[in-house]
Design a protein that fits this description.
alpha+beta; Pnp Oxidase, Chain A; 4 helices; 41% strand
Length: 182
């Protein structure tokens, strides 16, 4: 940002604009997010790639392998946290989300049709679940594999600006927004 944003509504709008840009621009620092989930005993964090943003629905979309441990964790404990940092903006954004995995239907099929001819499709075609030790020979690949969608419904947005002249922090949810102590 070239100028300091003062209005809370402008800051929230700018966050959503950056998320939309991140889903479309490969080099955007917010495209790769850290997703934290739990299995009930421990926290688990991993990187996910932001694929789509629906500002009006307050929803983000990621792809995953339906056999991954995060899918099992989401089924049991559907709440998670996403974290991103942009050194260019000096912004950290922490999103508390409700997660849902979709493994079948038109939404999954239509996105698979776009993805299946790209190198990224290979991640979902492996007959082995993520994390499985590899043997000397790799089994044959599947047709659609284990491609699934993860929907992340944003419940709260926690924005932190880290600048040499000081820090600012604000929180946003469906009920409004407020400045908070950094």
């Amino acid at each position: 940002m070239d100028q300091l944003l003062e209005s809370l509504s402008d800051i929230e709008n700018a966050c959503w604009t950056e998320l939309e840009r991140a889903s479309a621009e490969r080099g955007h620092p917010w495209r790769t997010m850290s997703l934290a989930t739990t299995d009930g005993r421990e926290a688990h964090a991993r990187s996910v790639i932001l694929r789509e943003v629906d500002r009006e629905a307050r929803e983000l979309l990621f792809f995953t392998d339906a056999r991954s441990s995060k899918v099992q964790q989401i089924a049991q404990f559907p709440r998670g946290t996403l974290l991103v940092w942009s050194p260019q903006l000096g912004w950290q954004l922490r999103l508390r989300v409700t997660l849902e995995v979709e493994t079948a239907g038109l939404a999954v099929s239509s996105r698979w049709a776009q993805l299946k001819l790209t190198p990224a499709a290979q991640d979902y075609l492996s007959p082995l679940p993520p994390g499985t030790p590899l043997a000397q020979t790799t089994p044959e690949r599947a047709s659609r594999g284990h491609f699934a969608l993860v929907h992340a419904q944003v419940r709260t947005m926690d924005w932190l600006e880290l600048l040499p002249q000081g820090q600012r922090r604000a929180c946003f949810d469906r009920n409004g927004y407020k400045w908070v102590q950094p």
